[in-house]
Amino acid sequence: MTQPDTARYDDGFYADQVDGSARAAGVVLPLVMGHLAVERVIDVGCGQGAWLAAAESLGARDLTGLDGPWVDRAKLRSARIVFHPTDLAQPLPDHGRHDLAISVEVAEHLPAARADGFVADLCRAADVVLFSAAVPHQGGTEHVNEERASRWIARFAAQGHDCFDLVRGAVWDDARVAWWYRQNLFVFVSRRSPLHARFAGAPLPPAPRDLVHPEAFEAKVGWLEGERQRLQRWTDHPTFGQALRVLWRALTGGRR
Fold first, then answer.
1. How far apart are CA 67 and CA 86, in angstroms?
2. What's the number of domains the chain is made of?
3. How many Å apart are CA 165 and CA 207, to the nearest integer?
4. DSSP assignment, residue 94?
5. Same domain? 248 vs 124
């Protein structure tokens, strides 16, 4: 990522993130890796490597992690992880082919102009990609490009990778998996791979029932943002602010 606010990616950020990532990975990865033999895994935007460590527990042995230089290598979740400090906002170096590429809740941190190239890099890394990215208005630390899932699916399709919705229905009600993974995770498989037929023949879990249409969600969030901005203008107005201070003094007897 290009010149991030590294103070936000401190020990506290990863302490909040890594345990939840580990729980989610322990539930999600068996759903994916049950369809293929996995020896080599790459995680693009790996953080402290929770997803790679979960892949190791399921038999993977060659673990590659890419993320910014702020990641403390001493805190990586597995000694097998080969970590490469990488600017994900630039085309990725070639680290060879892998059985599985993972990039979860990372793409929203990258500029919109990088989206097509980022997907192309993931598809070059592996025939099978586990991917999620924040939807519009999801919010989070330094989210600069939140997009609908359909736009990411179209990008993968342009690279020859079809979308398989194998995860969301299986974990939709599983509290061990954070809601953003339950909402956003998809599996993409190259049409050229022999694995494509295996994924295409796998029974799909029941589709989630409690879905909100993106247009309804975005309209509601847009209305709330408009109300917030109007309230901010009122509270910033000198006369209104003075009236609030007078009311506060009256209610509190001048106490602070």
1. 5
2. 2
3. 9
4. -
5. no
* 69: three-class secondary structure by DSSP: coil
Q: Is residue 206 part of a domain?
A: no
**Inside any domain, residue 208:** no
In tens digits, what is the pLDDT along the chain, a chain of 256 residues? 444 554 455 555 555 678 899 999 999 999 999 999 999 999 999 999 999 999 999 999 999 999 999 999 999 999 999 999 999 999 999 999 999 999 999 999 999 999 999 999 999 999 999 999 999 989 888 999 999 999 999 999 999 999 999 999 999 999 999 999 999 999 999 999 999 999 999 999 998 888 888 898 888 888 777 777 777 776 666 676 677 677 777 777 655 5
Q: Are residues 221 and 141 in the same domain?
A: no
Burial 136-172 (b: 16+ CB within 10 A, else e): bebeeeebebbbebeebbebbeebebebbbbbbebbb
Co-location of 113 and 175 in the same domain: yes
Q: In terms of domains, do 218 and 125 share one?
A: no
d(CA 166, CA 150): 16
- Predicted TM-score (pTM) of this structure: 0.83
Q: Are both 220 and 197 inside the same structural domain?
A: no
Residue 41: its H or E element? strand 40-44
* Domain enclosing residue 244, as ranges: 214-252
